From TrEMBL:
GO molecular function: hydrolase activity
Domain TMEM62 C-terminal: 491-712
Alphabetical UniProt keywords: Membrane, Signal, Transmembrane, Transmembrane helix
Domain TMEM62 Ig-like, residue spans: 341-468
Lineage: superkingdom: Eukaryota
Regions crossing the membrane: 493-515, 553-571, 608-632, 705-727
Signal peptide: 1-22
Protein name stated in the entry: Calcineurin-like phosphoesterase domain-containing protein
Domain spans labelled Calcineurin-like phosphoesterase: 46-260
A Pfam family annotated for this UniProt entry: Metallophos
Length: 732
């Protein structure tokens, strides 16, 4: 037999070795250790669900969850089931009031119990974590309104800590899973509850749990939580989850929160060589260096890196993920139940997808295979099916010449053994023949035929046997939610917008007071411009000089900006009960006498950015700009009107009056006839008012506010200033 046949035989023999009982082994580490029962011995697999959002207003979510997930889990038979947050929705029918609903939590408890029963799995292998929707308005964990600590599986199985760890052990392989809850300690109602808030203590606990099996070369480490790192704040000392994950060179961090509506490529590769502060432009930041991949000694150090995989939501997408670890190679497949249940699920475990699963260390592994013994000799795939599978085959396509050509078409054999947990199919191949400098030249697909003649296919995906990474670009929406480090953006964005608005308001007054005599505004006359560019430049200069002449509006906007800086914006109820009213400013929520903690000045930072930045950028700033434009339009139209009537301003000299008589023709006449610019500005004003009133209504509903008592300045100053500006600029 050749080398490929020997590798196949050894794998078959390993699968038939005596199997363990599957019960928990004695506690040797800090977390729970589970001896995985049955074969195949080289691979374990788990299931992830996220963002269930079970709601009293959408009972179909819980119905579909029980209808599809229970039978699917019975077919897959995973070693763990991870539910990564947003178990319930906690929103009113109009989506504006956000607080926990006990009925939803009872529905979640019943649904999960039904899934456990229908799947035949042990409830102890289920781990459910909190998301931001699961703690809306909960002032303290374990309190009256904290239904998670009453109805969740973690609570009912005695797992009450913020960090949970479990190790799956099969043979010499250990697979460590560490889950954590990074929701707010003092949880507010939405919408100002959208970020994860890890503490220094939480990071220390995660670090402690991830340090298990550090001396084991055959250990794989996976962490799971709710919030992606782009929505996870820093601790009080400036530390981050990323620091801890890189320290332990995590394989992958599994999370939720963002939902499929933002895109399907919500993945991100992190590495120590590229410490990104504010943003990362693409899935892969930079390119891996090959300089450290030549050393194949046992003492060679693996690069610090990890993958971050956000998964789709159950809420709208009905998505479930199956994740497998095979000889340390981590892969996954996402299952979409929107079109119904699945009779067959195929998860290729090797080779890996070169777009989303390849690690920098894969280059090192490829070069060092001869010295370390290879897991490369076999194409491997898991096949889960309700029917009997009669044929599984692997196809490899070569796209070097543009059109995909089949270069490998081989049947796969099932690994036999007693007490198998699932079906692993393998096929020997000449893996060295597929080494290529292009990470996306070769594409893999698995086909499975059942006894009813139905063929199922895996997703066609590229692979690079020599460990290269295929570059994939985010869409703008994917970059917006995964690439930007939002907790770090808040303060720079806040002060940049505030500074710009103060400049827009203060500079015109300075020019008006200091430069009016030296440079009279009449010298700036947009009606004489001959192009759009000249109109815009002249209009901008004229706005700087004319804006302060509307004294009431100018002073009102200046005072409003100072109000936003030094006073609370509004008052509202931030907890489930209505006996505590807090005030919100750009610094956060101030909660009087909460726990009598003198160090707790503000909470909800940077979550308040979802209120602060939209108000500044889409209401206040446009108001300043549109008021300035109204002033320019009124002044310019007055000049145009006087030129038509044959009159002139007292300040105009004869030559300027002679120029003005020519404005009735050409470009300027087409612009100013009928005051079309003013009509456009009135439309923009209406849009600003609509946006502002919509925001105010949302806040009133969210925090049970009375706008006339709790937020009069925030709600009514901008509309009054806009209406007054429209009135003052209406007359010529």
């Amino acid at each position: 037999m050749d080398g490929l046949d020997w590798a196949f035989l050894l794998l078959v023999v390993a699968a038939t070795l005596p199997l363990t009982t599957g019960e928990d082994s004695p506690q040797t580490g800090r977390g729970r250790v589970i001896e995985v029962e049955g074969g195949p011995r080289s691979v374990v697999w788990v299931v992830q669900l996220s963002d269930l959002h079970l709601s009293v207003h959408h009972p179909e979510r819980a119905y579909d969850l029980q209808r599809y997930v229970g039978p699917a889990l019975a077919m897959i038979n995973p070693s763990l089931v991870l539910i990564t947050g947003d178990l319930t929705d906690g929103k009113s029918k109009d989506l504006l009031t956000m607080k926990l609903d006990e009925v939803e939590w009872k529905e979640y408890q019943n649904a999960v119990d039904n899934i456990v029963q229908r799947s035949g799995l042990n409830k102890d292998i289920f781990y459910d974590l909190r998301g931001n929707h699961d703690c809306f308005g909960v002032p303290k964990a374990g309190g009256v309104y904290d239904y998670y600590h009453k109805c969740s599986i973690n609570a009912r199985t005695g797992r009450n800590g913020n960090v949970q760890s479990v190790t799956l052990q099969n043979g010499r392989w250990r697979h460590l899973f560490v889950g954590f809850d990074s929701t707010m300690e003092t949880s507010l109602r939405g919408p100002t509850n959208v970020f994860g808030h890890p503490t220094d203590q939480l990071l220390a606990e995660i670090d402690f749990e991830l340090s298990q099996w550090d001396d084991e070369s055959s250990a794989t480490k996976v962490s799971f939580g709710h919030f992606p790192l782009s929505f996870s704040a820093l601790t009080d000392t400036g530390k981050s989850l990323k620091d801890v994950f890189l320290k332990h060179s995590l394989s992958v961090y599994l999370c939720g929160h963002l939902h499929t509506k933002f895109g399907k490529n919500l993945k991100r590769h992190h590495q120590l060589d590229h410490l990104v502060n504010y943003f990362q432009l693409n899935i892969h930041q930079g390119f891996p260096s090959n300089k450290d991949n030549q050393n194949c000694s046992s003492k060679s150090i693996s690069p610090n890196e990890f993958w971050e995989w956000e998964m789709g939501d159950w809420r709208w997408s009905r998505t479930m993920r199956v994740l497998a670890i095979d000889y340390g190679h981590v892969s996954y497949v996402d299952i979409d139940f929107r079109l119904g249940s699945k009779d067959t699920i195929i998860l290729p475990t090797f080779p890996l997808d070169s777009r989303f699963m390849q690690r920098i260390s894969s280059i090192h592994d490829f070069k060092c295979q001869p010295e370390r013994g290879s897991s490369y000799e076999l194409v491997r795939t898991l096949v889960f099916s309700k029917q009997k599978i009669v044929l599984v085959s692997v196809k490899v396509y070569d796209t070097h010449y543009g059109t995909p050509n089949i270069v490998l078409d081989s049947s796969m054999e099932r690994i036999e053994g007693n007490g198998t947990r699932g079906d692993l199919y393998v096929a020997p191949w000449n893996w060295k023949a597929f080494a290529d400098p292009s990470p996306s030249r070769y594409w893999l697909q698995i086909e499975a035929l059942d006894n009813f003649g139905k063929t199922s296919y895996s997703e066609l995906r590229p692979f690079s046997i020599n460990g290269l990474t295929a570059q994939v670009s985010w869409t703008w929406k994917e970059f917006f939610v995964m690439g930007i480090q939002w907790p770090l953006i808040y303060q720079p964005a806040l002060w940049a917008v505030l500074s710009f608005m103060f400049l827009l308001v203060v500079v015109p007054q300075v020019l008006f007071l200091c430069c009016n005599k030296l440079f009279p505004y009449e010298y700036v006359r947009p009606t004489n411009a001959t192009s759009i560019k000249e109109h815009l430049v002249d209009a901008g200069l004229l706005a700087l000089m004319e804006f302060p002449r509307m004294t009431e509006v100018w002073l009102g906007l200046l005072l409003y900006l100072f109000y936003l800086l030094y006073f609370p914006w509004f008052f509202g109820h931030v907890f489930g009960e209505l006996n505590t009213k807090a005030s919100m400013s750009y610094q956060g929520w101030s909660i009087p006498n909460f726990d009598k903690n003198p160090n707790l000045h503000y909470v909800g930072i940077p979550d308040i950015m979802v209120v602060v930045l939209p108000h500044l950028c889409f209401v206040v700033l446009p108001t300043i700009l549109v008021v300035g434009a109204m002033v320019v339009e009124r002044t310019t139209y007055r000049k145009y009107f006087l030129s038509l009537s044959g009159k002139k301003d007292d300040d105009f000299s004869r030559d300027k009056n002679r120029q003005a008589k020519n404005v009735t023709s050409g470009y300027s006449h087409r612009i100013w006839h009928g005051r079309w610019p003013r009509k456009l500005l009135l439309l923009v004003t209406a849009l600003i008012l609509w946006k502002h009133l919509k925001n105010c209504r949302a806040l009133v509903r969210a925090y049970d506010m009375n706008p006339f008592i709790d937020s009069p300045v925030y709600c009514f100053v901008i509309p009054l200033l806009l209406i007054y500006a429209v009135y003052k600029t209406s007359a010529v």
